[in-house]
Amino acid sequence: MNRRSFLTSLAVSVSTGAIDQVVRADATPAVQSSATCTGAARLRVAQLTDTHVFHDLDCPARMRAFLARFSSVTGTPDLVLHTGDVIFDALDADRDEVTRQWALWHDLARELPSPPMYAIGNHDVWGKAPVSDPLYGKKWAVDMLKLPNRFYGFTKGGWQFIVLDSTHPIPTGWYTAKLDDEQLAWLEGELKKTDAKTPVAIVSHIPLVSAAIVQWAKSQGQTWTVSNGLMHGDSHAIQAVLRRYPNVKLCLSGHLHLLDHVVYDGITYIGCGAVSADWWRGPTFHQTHCGFATIDLSADGSFERTYHLYDWPAAPALEVR
Residue 78 and residue 81: Cα distance in Å, rounded? Predict the structure, then answer.
């Protein structure tokens, strides 16, 4: 498909430095390079997000259909990136159920081309436990995903990747999306010490900027209401930091289960469709079919993103436990 038939996306803007396209499950992937994506060094990133694995709704079988498609398309990518919500839900599940979900993920993840780098999703945070429990909150996810910290950075293929921790629990038992003071200071420190010629990609589970939030937002009279659980509530503050560093080229996220492509202040914000689509209840959520992305990054800071659809086997209706 070309961009004119990019019907499964809520993309609102495309820059000359990036190409977006969707490839059907029965098509041969063919990424067309843009004139500006010609840097000598090329890095292929395979992004998956919102797998939400658990044992119901035929999720394990459908995940294996995804994994077969993922491996056939990506081969051996330079980087596998999982942008969060690895398991179905730890926010409101007891210890035994969360243990089962993590065990399932580790079983399935063995079929990935390489161990992913992860961002922590809101559903990866354990909330149904006393605060005094050593695994409460993000500690369990950090351990299960073998993360160096809840936020961290790394260099790959001439790009600097900065992985943020979006989710912050609130007393009502829910969460808000923001960076705490420690993390915001760390982000600016990472950007300051990165060579100005090195392109930067920011990775977060919850988007920093999004157009697709309109599918989730509520319109009341003449006012749109957008929850801070949908997009970072401190988006303006983060943008104020990012715009001071022209080498910040790309921000990648998941969370909304929708394709999204926004270019603002010279930065491209890309949201990826979910592997689980409608949380395993159906293969399409709004206009976005289940899938994953390949992103080719060049050393000059340009890039291409292709979204690959996949098919999953039909299953009888099952009740979610």
Answer: 10
